[in-house]
Amino acid sequence: MRLPHLSDEQLLDSLKTLCGQGRVVLARLLAHLVEVEERRLHLEVACPSMFQFCVQRLGMSEDEACRRIHAARLARRFPDLLVRIEQGDLTLSTMALLQDALTEASYEELVEAAAGKTKAEVQALLAKRSPKPDVPAAITTIPMQPAIPTLDVAQVQAPAAAAGLQLVPLSETRHKVQFTASDELRKKLERAQDLTRHANAQGDLAVVVERAVDLLLEKLEKQRLGKASRPRRSPEDSDPQRLSRATRRAVFERDGERCTFTDADGHRCPATTWLELDHVIARARGGTSELANLRVRCRAHNRLHAEQTFGKEHVERKIRERRHPRQRGYAYESCALAASGLVNLGFRRADVRRAVDVVSMRHPAEVLTTIPVQDVLREALAVLM
After folding, report:
1. How far apart are the first and last CA of the chain?
2. Verdict on whether the full-model pTM lies above 0.70
3. Helix axes 183-195, 205-224, angle to 10 degrees
4. What confidence category does residue 235 fall into, taking pLDDT thresholds of 50, 70 and 90?
5. One-letter-per-residue 3-state SS of 207-228
6. Number of helices (H) and strands (E), helices first, in the chain?
7. Is 226 exposed, middle or buried (0-12, 13-18, 19+ CB in 10 A)?
8. N or C: which end of the chain has fewer CB within 10 A?
9. What is the DSSP string of 147-194?
10. Distance from C-alpha of 120 to C-alpha of 122, rounded to nearest angstrom
């Protein structure tokens, strides 16, 4: 189904309406499952269990059936949960986490605390209410897996480890971390244990990993955020196009190491990963690398700004060229001729490429098809000089 006739605003409003309708349908579906199980209707249609009924008769996936059946049975104990699902306060995932903790005494307080929270937030909430003991640090050898014979899809079950979480809260301040390591990493961990015995007599892996991550963060914050152990206030750079470490550090500190994109309703993008520095006025349009012209954007919103400035096709072409350098070429004859002339004058190819790219981004496509080579040369030389 294609929806080209809808405007952007209509499309988002329609999607929001459909999500609301979906929650209503889900609540009604769970109510139906409760009634079917109470009347034992699944047995009358030759299904020995509700799981078989949902998968074979209703066409649900195995995972879908399990989550809905568990939620329906929980809703049978606490009917108000159906209203919570319809309102969007709870999801099937959060209900699955709550099912073992809900009692008549804890219901109102726990559901109210979990309302509107994500799966990770509910896990943290439960860990705070019912702390678990620390797990022992261990390195365990995983045996080689034998070749899996070809089976009918219905016979194959996903391994339990695949569904396990890598980071699980045990209490408010303690977490279980689990991952699979290569043999090389195992040797590095054991060597780090040996070298830190003077300060970590028990060879606690958590201590080793934390110290290693501290060093990694120090290096990455220096590279990515411009941080320094003893930052110096450097004088204003005479070159407004040069991005200094002090400026990079100031931008990230000002923007809180978070994407600054804000929608029309004032909602700010929550992304704190894949962060990049974005020029408010693009460098190709005369923008500088000074503090006032820089902001933190996630990669997705940085690209969105580039597409809005230069066009989606232009951005996609630049990405392809970056991924496949040998396929680089100039889309317009005037740019290709100007580049050839600049290289013949003795300029480095990489510098010429950058200068001609800057010129091409200043003009729309229809201008570049007719612009004289001399004009491209003049503008490119101004960039190079």
Report:
1. 53
2. no
3. 100
4. very low
5. HHHHHHHHHHHHHHHHHHCCCC
6. 18, 4
7. buried
8. N
9. PPPP--GGG----HHHH--SEEESSSS-EEE-----HHHHHHHHHHHH
10. 5
